[in-house]
Amino acid sequence: MPEQATARPHDTRIRSYVHQRVRLSEGQQSAWDRLWTVWGGEVDDVVAGGTWDRRALFGRDAPLVLEIGSGMGETTALLAAAEPDVDHVAVEVYEPGLAQLLMRVEQAGLTNQRLLRGDAVELLTRVVPAGSLDGLRIFFPDPWPKRRHHKRRLVQPGFAALAASRLRPGGRLHLATDWPHYAEQMRRVVAAEPSLRPDGEFPLGPDGWQGRPPWRPVTKFEDRAHVEGRPVRDLLYVADHTGGTPDTRRVTDYGREHPRPGSPPE
Fold first, then answer.
1. Which 3 state secondary structure label does DSSP give 89?
2. At 167, phi and psi to the nearest 5?
3. Which residue in the list 44, 45, 61, 142 is annotated as catalytic?
4. Angle between helices 74-82 and 95-108 (to 10 degrees)
5. How far, in Å, CA of 259 to CA of 266, rounded?
6. Smallest Cα–Cα separation from 246: which of 264, 232, 225, 224?
7. If DSSP codes are grouped into helix, strand and coil, which group holds residue 172?
8. Which residue among 46, 169, 202, 259 is buried most deeply as judged by most CB within 10 Å?
9. 142 marked ligand binding residue
10. What is the side-by-side order of every strand in the sheet holding 113-117?
11. Is residue 82 pLDDT above 70, yes or no?
């Protein structure tokens, strides 16, 4: 079994995930033992080093996309294979998913995919430089459906501001979810962030939502959502650091309203 990452003492930040120890299958364990030190690493180690050296990760300078929550790695590997001139980093805490992605990387012969285990928000906050990412993907994050758990949802106003700051001008934030309430929350949050604007390549449809881009693979998980009657929503926004007029509407994330920066005091 891979060793678990250790939590920092006195760190009380609410996280969007729960790290559970899960046994790897025989094939996953074999992949982990052979490949983790080749293509994988720990967020804690990167943070402790204090720098984000993308050239050291890939041995080249290329556009870089960060994915938060790669799950079992199906979409991750397909997108990396479709974009050989783009480097991809997947950040995940679920070891079986990381091991499965290692297997996919090996089977596809990918050289542009790396894996990190740990807290992606910590990585973005502590070491990823401002304006350094060409893309940030978050597909089907944990919806935390119970109201008392909405505070654990990843896409909140503070995260949207952080994500926008790490994208280069024109860099894309791509979100997808099959939970209607979370989709509405995501849309309110990103629409209210002044450093993000809708990606003009994907205009709104008659229903007021952007469509799934043809290059995002449809997974078995997504097929099940359609069968169960849950619409899948994609949100594609790009970073715009020109400092337009802030949106003074209020954003509600988990049952509490957060005034936008620049909103008049009440």
1. strand
2. -85, 140
3. 142
4. 30
5. 10
6. 264
7. strand
8. 46
9. yes
10. 40-42, 113-117, 87-92, 64-68, 133-139, 167-177, 233-239, 196-198
11. yes
Provide the H-helix boundaries in 40-179. Answer: 43-49, 54-58, 74-82, 95-108, 120-126, 157-166
Residue 247 assigned ligand-binding role: no
**pLDDT tens-digit series, residues 184-198:** 999 999 999 999 999
Q: Residue 22, CB half-sphere, CA atoms under 13 Å: how many? A: 13
Q: Is 149 exposed, middle or buried (0-12, 13-18, 19+ CB in 10 A)?
A: middle
Q: What is the pLDDT of residues 200-226, one digit of tens each?
A: 999 999 988 999 999 999 988 788 899
Taking each helix axis from N to C end, the angle separating 26-39 and 95-108, rounded to the nearest 10 degrees, works out to 70
Q: Is 177 annotated as a binding residue?
A: no
Pairing of strands 167-177, 233-239: antiparallel
Active site residue 142: yes
> And the tokens for 5?
């990452």
Token pair in block for residue 91: 């950040």
130 alpha-carbon distance from chain centroid: 16
**What is the residue type of 174?**
H
For position 8, what pLDDT does the model report? 52
For residues 50 and 47, give the distance between their C-alpha atoms in angstroms, rounded to a whole number. 5
Does 222 show up as a binding residue in the annotation? Answer: yes
The residue whose two tokens read 């509405």 is 184
- Are 93 and 119 in contact by the 8 Å Cβ rule? The answer is yes
